[in-house]
Amino acid sequence: MCGIIGFTGKLQAAEILVGGLEQLEYRGYDSAGIAVNENDQTKIVKTTGKVANLREKVSTADDISGTCGIGHTRWATHGGVTDTNAHPHVSGNVTLIHNGIIENYKELAASLKEKGYFAVSETDTEVAAMLIDSLYTGDPFTALREADKILEGAYGFCVMFKDHPGEIYCMRNASPLVASYTEDGAFIASDMVALLKYTKDYFVVPEEHIVVMTQDAITLYTMDEKVEEPKMLHVDWDTTAAQKGGYAYFMQKEIYDQPEALHNTVMPRLHNGHADFSADNISDDIFKGINRVVVTACGTAMHAGLIGRHLIESMLRIPVTVELSSEFRYMNPILDENTLVIVVTQSGETADSLAALRLANERGAKTISIVNVKGSSIARESDYVLYTHAGPEIAVASTKAFSVQCAGMYLIALKLAEINQMMSEEEMADYCAKFEEAIATVEDVLKMDDYIKGIAEKIKDTFSAFYLGRSLDFGIASEGSLKLKEISYVNSEAYNAGELKHGTISLVTEGVPIIAIATQDHVLSKLMANVEEVKARGAHVIMVTDKDMSAYDGIYDDLIQVPEVDDKFGTFGVTVALQLLAYHVTVFRGYDVDQPRNLAKSVTVE
Length: 606
Ligand code: M6R
What we know:
By secondary structure, this protein is an alpha/beta fold. It folds into 3 domains: about 5-235, Glutamine Phosphoribosylpyrophosphate, subunit 1, domain 1 (4-Layer Sandwich); about 245-440, Glucose-6-phosphate isomerase like protein, domain 1 (Rossmann fold, 3-Layer(aba) Sandwich), CATH 3.40.50; about 450-590, Glucose-6-phosphate isomerase like protein, domain 1 (Rossmann fold). The protein has an 8-stranded antiparallel beta sheet with strand order 3-2-4-1-10-9-11-15, with helices on one face. It has a 7-stranded antiparallel beta sheet with strand order 5-6-7-8-12-13-14. A 5-stranded parallel beta sheet has the order 19-18-20-21-22, with helices on both faces. Strand 7 and strand 8 form a beta hairpin.
């Protein structure tokens, strides 16, 4: 949700900023802008649209040289998509970029007006710039610290002060910032992918800290101005992982990354028929005496929770609820020390999920998160973290992150079973063998790409679609449907198959695609009865299954049959088939697969 970058050092800033924003564009692409400072001059170039528009504008701008600057790519929250609302914003001495939301901006704007400050944009960010300027008496640090006491909401700021050329002051309360120093200079960004061209070593700026960047150094301060030694981290994935590598889109590449992502997430943690979390430093204690599990997450990550729920409840008979993080924090949840709260998140920065985790911690529940981004806020604040090893996911639509999140659920289910003695040694060994077999089938599903493309072409012009599934398959259907709708703009919904005739079947007319998921033997005949009902109303039925469907010939129009696996592990192969279907429909419809309208990858505002 908005990408920010800053650099000061020996190199020309403009190219570093624009190049970095191209990497951060997945965080928002409504507008983009940079400010470059040289001596007492600060030049700003900003424009609506994607970073490509900014690059074009920068290339024709009058002199934009300078070795210190800040850049921003915006996902609009307050104020429309206009050049004026694009960042950076300027007020007096201050030039500022911001990721987050200032909640009390209206009150602040009113009081600043009395001091002669008038905003030109409609943004909350400009009010923050005005506030900092109003507090500035020559010491940037003090102005920021005072602003921190007044501002409400979430922010990561990078600020340049007119009379401090060559310096950038950054402050974070909630929105993520990572920083680094190399012999070329000091860097800061919302996400490491923006800095990979220059360094793989970095630190996460902790909340309520200020970073001062000069051409020779980067210093981390607490709010009371004490220098703090940053905790350095190292990016351990190959830098090419953040490139498209010959694929047309990041989403396509990330679909194809899945065999490796699953292998890296699962295999090091399966040892002799047991889930082994020793390398993760996860104590067995967290799984002891658990009588309830709550999974909280948003979007795709929540769908991984649905898979986890089915698995844990059906296998272990422990009650599981799956709660949207955005609701969880407002529903006064009942939690105690026997509740295991699992937070699932790719970015580790989703504001609602972070708030849900904090609430769970406050209420004394045991917390574990399934996170992809190392060192992210949710990873740091959970009792324990099970990292998924998917590498960077750049496309807004989650693909490989979902598969490894589900894998994380399967691993936790096994661990819970072992610690609470709910499975025998033989059962656990069998579980591990079947788990391995299931993730290995993903390679075979990828070989069906062209075949699935052919089916996508048949439904590419549809206005709506429905995904049906029962039991575990409802979670898979929910994710398949989200994939299709978020990138292709097909009006798609997922239903528990038996529920359709309680209302929604009235929307099923001639040719409407119904994508029916069938990986669960115990409900197969029931599902197929529902499929017959929609077929009778003219639906175009696409069966996605690992089962032999010959007994149902004539009930469906198209069949995507992935390799058969044990029912418990039906998630993996079918999910990949649905991702490919959504991808190809979108390409046929001519939309930007990686950057669907109105969306951003990392939702760091409430
Ligand atoms: O980073 P998170 O996993 O916490 O993000 C949660 C959702 O915003 C995310 O899963 C979103 O629904 C997907 N990108 C959609 O494909």
